[in-house]
From TrEMBL:
GO molecular function, one term: metallopeptidase activity
EC number(s) stated in the UniProt entry for this protein: 3.4.-.-
Annotated function: Involved in the degradation of specific anti-sigma factors.
Intracellular or extracellular location(s): Cell membrane
Pfam families linked to this entry: PrsW-protease
Lineage of the species this protein comes from: Bacteria, Bacillati, Bacillota, Bacilli, Bacillales
Keywords assigned: Cell membrane, Hydrolase, Membrane, Metalloprotease, Protease, Transmembrane, Transmembrane helix
Species whose genome carries this gene: Alteribacter lacisalsi
Coiled coil: none
Annotated protein name in UniProt: Protease PrsW
Length: 221
């Protein structure tokens, strides 16, 4: 069991540290980041209950609905809801990049517990593949969500639009990822280019968030 927990936690810790240290200005308090991670861990249970209910009732039969509604919308909505209603108005959310840190922490908390359950049922030998694909993808969805929440936080005229983007775009990306897995016989040939795209897209958001913050400081020294 210790090996499973270690294998599940290690990639999440590495990814969270990576994006945490990408903040070029002011690192967030570790206790606040840890709380977001912990709350993300707890999110797995209501999400699993809802997804189990969908399966039991047979409400979503098509791969498209399963990918985009049962999985992507359910998981990303709960993450978005948690970040928006717990840390969005927090005193430490005071820079554009902060949304990335907090949303990524929530996403990786979720991914860690989900990963533990998967490795318990399927075996720790899948830990490396899980780190490369599901865990990394959750982190990248969190980065994109946090980027738009950061824009929403400091936008004068487009708060609601940016907050909506913070949910819609991760749902879209997550849905595409799941749809590839569900529908392609040789899904690795499609998911690997998509993961490369996700990394490039997310890292651009990281740079843009830091650039916006630098511009803000240059105008308000």
């Amino acid at each position: 069991m210790l090996a499973v927990i270690t294998a599940a936690f290690a990639p999440s810790a590495a990814l969270l540290a990576f994006f945490y240290l990408k903040d070029e200005f002011e690192n967030e308090p570790l206790i606040t980041v840890a709380r977001c991670f912990f709350f993300g861990c707890l999110l797995v249970f209501p999400v699993m209950f809802i997804q189990f209910a969908f399966d039991e009732e047979g409400l979503l039969q098509s791969p498209f609905l399963t990918a985009f509604v049962q999985t992507a919308l359910t998981e990303e909505f709960f993450k978005w809801f948690l970040v928006y209603f717990t840390v969005f108005h927090h005193i430490h959310f005071n820079e554009r990049y902060d949304g990335i840190v907090y949303a990524c922490a929530v996403a990786l908390g979720f991914a860690t517990v989900e990963n533990i359950f998967y490795l318990i049922s399927s075996g720790v030998e899948y830990a490396f593949l899980r780190a490369l694909l599901p865990v990394s993808s959750h982190a990248l969805f969190g980065v994109v969500m946090g980027y738009y929440l950061g824009k929403a936080k400091f936008s004068r005229n487009r708060k609601k639009t940016m907050a909506a983007f913070a949910l819609f775009i991760p749902v879209l990306l997550h849905g595409i990822y799941n749809y590839i897995i569900l529908t392609q016989n040789y899904w690795t040939y499609a998911v690997i280019p998509f993961m490369i795209f996700l990394w490039v897209f997310a890292l651009r958001k990281v740079k843009q968030a830091n650039r916006m913050q630098a511009k803000h400081y240059s105008k308000n020294p």
